[in-house]
Design brief:
The complex is a heterodimer. By secondary structure, chain A is of the alpha/beta class. Chain A contains 6 helices and 4 strands, in the order ααβαβαβαβα. Chain A has a 3-stranded parallel β-sheet, with helices on one face. The two termini of chain A are 19 Å apart. Chain B is of the alpha/beta class. Chain B has a single domain, classed as Rossmann fold, CATH 3.40.50. Chain B has 7 helices and 7 strands. The longest helix of chain B has 13 residues. The chains are: A alpha/beta, B alpha/beta. Strand 4 of chain A pairs antiparallel with strand 6 of chain B.
């Protein structure tokens, strides 16, 4: 998740918890940091490149815009096919249209509820499965939360 | 025979099943629809009575050919015909093979005294009907039965809703809108 607002990131974590979805959620506060995370550069060099199941992208970001972030990941072979769901507070048609042109799978208006999230994951052909506890020890967490990244 | 092939499909998919003991076809259909909406993939077997539920668990009666099945979770309606939900719970908790399977009790009201009896008998939680995916997933999260988003393998949906042991009509009919497994059946 690329989201600069700590409040909105917390809401998203809570949303996933409420939906009972246990996939770990990594929150990154800017496009630049998200690119570093995806490509395993800069602050995330130790970790190496990461391929998430899904990217949740806020459009109102400081520094590099969400649209530029999209162009960057779409132009790289390793990240071009990762599904992206864009999020914004406002229904700004041009911004949303541009996202869709840049290959965003879905756009959601914040705040997002469980039903909308599940509808989107379903359309993205993601299934929910219940796994035995021993296979599913992953927990929702902020691996590179805003605070951790700024430190 | 069709049932048998659906069961096999569920086994091949490698996902543990969920057993739903529910005599009301409407309530079962509502629950299945809620799961389907969320693309919840674990197969759900619905049986219409506590007796059939025990047959499913211990591989007796109708389920002799299939053998005993250990589901991931049992969703138990309290208002069952003949054997009551409480009796079913007693039997499941009394047997070493089934003692530790989590059971979530479904009830029409929170104030039902039977709910308290069930919790005392070791039911993990209760849900007030109608069962929807949101409150279901909240319960499973509390039970540490974690739901995980995964890419759906291939174009074909591995969902195998299994409706079995239900009386011929009208309960045997799948929920409106069809289930993935029902979609494969020929319609007149």
């Amino acid at each position: 998740m690329v989201e600069d607002s700590a409040t909105d990131a917390d809401l998203a974590l809570r949303l996933f918890r409420r939906a009972g979805i246990a996939n770990p959620l990594t929150v990154l506060p800017s496009s630049e940091r998200a690119l570093a995370y995806l490509f395993g550069t800069g602050a995330c060099a130790k970790r190496g490149p990461v391929r998430p199941l899904l990217i949740l992208l806020d459009l109102q970001l400081p520094g590099m815009s969400g649209h530029d972030f999209l162009r960057r990941i779409r132009s790289h072979e390793s990240t071009s096919d990762i599904p992206v769901v864009s999020l914004s507070m406002t229904r700004s048609a041009p911004a949303i249209m541009m996202c869709l042109q840049l290959g965003v799978a879905e756009h959601l208006i914040k705040p997002v509820d469980v039903a909308a999230l599940l509808q989107v994951t379903r359309r993205l052909k993601l299934s929910l499965v219940m796994l035995p506890p021993e296979c599913a020890s992953a927990r929702n967490e902020r691996v590179c939360g805003p605070m951790a990244m700024q430190a | 025979m069709q049932d048998a092939s659906k069961h096999d499909a569920a086994r091949i998919s490698g996902l543990q099943e969920i057993l739903m003991v529910e005599d009301s076809a409407t309530d079962a259909a509502l629950a299945l629809r809620a799961f389907k909406f969320a693309d919840f993939t674990n197969p759900v077997t619905v049986v219409a009575s506590g007796e059939l539920g025990l047959d499913y668990l211990f591989g007796t009666g109708t389920f002799t050919a299939r053998g005993a099945t250990r589901p991931h979770l049992i969703l138990l309606d309290l208002g069952l015909p003949k054997m009551s939900g409480v009796d079913f719970l007693h039997r499941v908790r009394a047997d070493g093979r089934t003692r530790d399977i989590p059971i979530v009790v479904l009830s029409l009201s929170e104030s039902n005294l039977k709910v308290k009896a069930c919790i005392q008998l070791g039911a993990e939680a209760y849900l007030v009907k109608p069962l929807n995916f949101e409150n279901f997933s909240r319960i499973t999260a509390g039970l540490k039965l974690r739901l995980t988003l995964v890419p759906r393998p291939g174009a074909g949906n591995p969902n195998g809703w299994v409706l079995s042991g239900a009386p011929a009509a009208p309960r045997a009919s799948p929920p409106r809108g069809g289930t993935p497994s029902a979609a494969g059946q020929s319609t007149p």
